[in-house]
Every structure is written in C-alpha cells, then in structure tokens.
Amino acid sequence: MTLYHLRMTHITPVCFGIDLLGYRVLPDHRRLRNDNGHRFVRKLRRFAAGYAEGRLNRDDIDPSVQSWIGHAKQANTLGLRTKIFSAIVFQRGRT
Description:
9% strand
C-alpha cells in the first residue's frame, strides 16, 4: 500500500456510520445526508420560480423530482419529504 493510501485511511467506530452515495449509512438504518436535502430544496425553489414565470412546465420538472424522491425513499425520509413538498408551492403567475 502506498503512503498516499495510508494517509487516506481512517478507523472510526461503526456507530458513527459512513458517507456513501448521498447517505450516512449506520449499522441499523440509513439517513439522507444534510447537503443532499438542502441542495434539493434550492433546486425545487428554482423550479417553482421557473414554473411561476412560465419558463418551465410540469413535464420539465417531474423527472428530476421523481428521481430525488426515489433516492430519498431509500432512507427514512417521510417527514423530510412531507416538510419540503408542503413548503414550496407551484403556481403560475406567482413571483
């Protein structure tokens, strides 16, 4: 093993979990990483603004939203998804 790889190795207790593919993987469950949710909220707000201005329609937005929901469902995120989607309103002509 090269010196570079030895510096990259960290030994931590399993109870802290590991970052993997947008999740914090713990021994008994997965959590969505915070940056993942924050980034999606910002994107969803941009979608809502574009929809309100008439630049985007539902067909432009839906694939991205469905993709994130599919990713988020792999962890226990029902409360997070409910909070995000109840806070952002998609309405035409609204600024």
